[in-house]
C-alpha cells in the first residue's frame, strides 16, 4: 500500500498530528506579498547576476553603486505615492545593488530614513510582459530626468573615471561590502527544482511555520535559530521587498535578530536547538528534501555529487526517440513511537530496510532499529532518484537464526512519488511494525536532469541499413547484401534505443566462390547517426531507422594536425598528437565552419563541475585539485574523458555542457547541448585514436550485441547517494555518478571479459577481422 498524506482519515497507518498547513495567518504572520511569484523572479535575477561576470568587476560595481545612490534612489523616492512604489524597474546593475542592499534590513532602513525620511519599497512585478513594460517606462523617466546619464552601465576605462569611482568607493564602503558579499548567493539556490511552484508553495508554508516557532520560542531560546535552505529562500525574498517586510514583521522586529543570516557561521548547538524546537512544535523532521541545513561556513558544506543545473531550453526535443530524464531529491527520516517502545529483544534483532520500487531493485539500505530513538528524528538516507523509480519501500525485518543470513519480513510500507507530490510540504508520514516505528519521506518536485547515453556494439549492417544476416538475405530473395558498416546502438539511461550509429568500412558483397567485401577509401569512411530504434524482423535481426540526423566525414587535416572531421552540425574537429603512446599529448580543436570564434572547447579529463569528489569514511568530501590548463598532465582516472565547454559573451569563463568518454563511448549532456553533436565527437575521436595507435582501443571490432545487465536491477544513474549518507557498508559504484567508476558501472553483464569477441561468432558473410582492422586502424 502507498502512504497517505498527513491528517487524512483514509488510513489508520498515518499519524493525525498538527501539520504546517493547519497554521492560520491569525496565529502567525500575514504575508502581504506573493512570495511564490516573488521568489521565482528573484531566482531569475540571481541567475542572471551569477552568469554576468562583467557585473562583478570592480569598476562596473562601483559605477553601479553610484548610479543606485545618486540617480535611482532619488528618482524612485520622488515617484512614490505614500508607501506604494511605482511600477518601474531599474537596469540590471542598479537592480542587483538594490537587491543586495535590502538583504540588510537594518542598514537599508537607516539609509532610506537618512536620505529620504521614508522607507523606499520595491514594486511587485512578477510577469515577463509587465517587466518589459516597467523597464521601458523606467528608461523614459530616467532619460527625462537625467539626459546626460546613460540608462545602461557604460563605465569608461580612462583614469579620470577611475578616480571618480574611487571617491564613490570611499563614500559607500559599507554598501560595496554588502554587494560583494552576495556575489555567490545564487550558488545556494541554483537547484533546478527551486523554481517549481509546488516546491515554492511548500517553502512558503514552512517559512510561515518558522515564523510561528520564532514568535513563540525566541525569547526563551538561548541560541539563534537557523533557517533551512527552502526557508532561507523565502526569508531572502521577503527581505527584498522592504516596505512589505517591515509592515509584515513589525511586531516581530526583536525576534528577527534571532535568525541566522545568509553567510554567518553557525554553532552546532544552534542547529540542534532549531531542530528540537521544530520537532516539538510540529512533530516533524525539520530537515527535508530541498530543505537541508548548511552550517559551519561554506567550506564545511558537502556538495551534492550530481551536476544538475537549470537549462533554459532543451535542444534535443527535435529527436523524438530521445526522452528527457527527470531527477528529484529524496530524504527519509525515522523515529520510534514514544508510547509504544519496542522491547530490548526487538531492538536487537529487528532492522529497517529501504528499497527502490523500480530501476534499482538491487539497492538495499539496512539500518538496525537500535540506531533510532524516540527523542528525535534520525536520517535513514538522502538520495537523488530518477522519477521513473516510482517510489521507495520501507520494511521492518527480523534477523533469522542459523548459519544463513536470512531475515523475516515483519511489516512494509511504500511511498510513491506521485502521492508525495500531492502531499502538504511534499512530505508524508506513516507507521510500521504495529505503530512502533514512524517514518517520514520527503521529495522535491522532479526537474529535468542531464541526458545519459551509452553506445553498445551491434551487428554489421549493409548499405541499406539492414543487418547482415541469412534472415535478411532470404527476405531479399537471396540478393547479396552490398556494403559493410560497423554498427552501434545508442541506449539512454533506461535502456531504450535512441539512435543507431553506423561507420562505413567496406563496399561490395560476399558471394560463395570468392567475392568478398573490400575496404573503402579512407575519405569514404564516414560516420552516420540515425534517429530511432531498430525495426526488428526476427529476434535480434533488424533494419536501422531511415532518418539520418548527423554525419561526420574525414578530410585532409591542415598543417600541424593529424586528423580532421567535418560534422553535418556545422563544426569541424581537429586532432593532433605528439606521441602515439601517450594520451596526454592529445590536443583537440573545435571550430565552426561559419565562424572563427572559439565558442566551443574540449578539455581533457573531468573538468569544472565534473571533477571527481572523493568521500572519506566520515562522509567528508575531498576534491581532487583541478588542473584548468588543457596541457596539464592527465590523471589516470581521467583517461578517455573530455569536458565540452561552451563560451558566450555573457559567460566568457565557459559553461560545461557535456562530459564524454570516447574510449567507453558514454555521454552525459545538459539539455541545452545537442546529443548528436556529442555522439559524433565521441565516435570520431575514437576512430582517429584507433588509427593513431594502430590498435582497437575502444572495442570497435566487436560485432555483436553483448549481454546487458538486467533492466531494473541497477540502472545507471537511477539512484545517486548523497555524500552525507555514505558509509563503509554502502559503497556501490552504482550509487555514485557514473564517471567516478565508469568502467565498473557501464560494464556489460559478466564484466570486462564479456567484451572479448569470440572468433566463432564471426560470419564470413559480414567479413573477417582483417577487413575491419584495416577499416579502423589504417
Automatic annotation (TrEMBL):
Pfam families: GRDP-like, GRDP_C
Amino acid composition bias (Basic and acidic residues), ranges on this chain: 618-628
Residue span(s) of domain GRPD C-terminal: 490-668
Region Disordered, annotated ranges: 614-639
UniProt-listed InterPro entries: GRDP-like (IPR009836), GRDP_C (IPR057518)
Biased composition (Acidic residues): 629-639
Classification via PANTHER family: ENOLASE (DUF1399)
Name of protein: ENOLASE (DUF1399)
Organism encoding this protein: Salix purpurea
